[in-house]
Design goal:
The protein is of the alpha+beta class and about 130 residues long. The chain has a single domain, classed as 2,3-Dihydroxybiphenyl 1,2-Dioxygenase, domain 1, CATH 3.10.180. Helices cover about 15% and strands about 40% of the residues.
Amino acid sequence: MNAPAIGSVSWFEIGSDKPEEVKKFYSELFGWQFKLNTDLEGVDYHAAITPGSPGPSGGIFDHAGRFEDYAVFYVLVEDIPATLEKAKALGAEITMDPVVDASGVSFARLRDANGHHFGVYSMPAAMA
């Protein structure tokens, strides 16, 4: 399998304070499997592995009631700071500053000029 193309939607995240119920629903509906991801200390995150996929393509985040439930897509980018600057120039709002997990994946969240929530991420060269 080739790495996703820059600019493609290649990750999703579902945030819930009931992650076990969410995992059960998607597992039964689509056959998704889940694996605990411990790359971000103190974060309960379950990588989602969809049928036919060689690895995770999304995840379930236990937000423990800190947010409203959500589903969001992530777009792969080469340069998060440059993408955030361009997005701001186009009217976007940064809702979560960039974070880097233990594997070196960087990600941030935004709202577009019309208020739609989405994320961007980049991978270290060794993973790309």
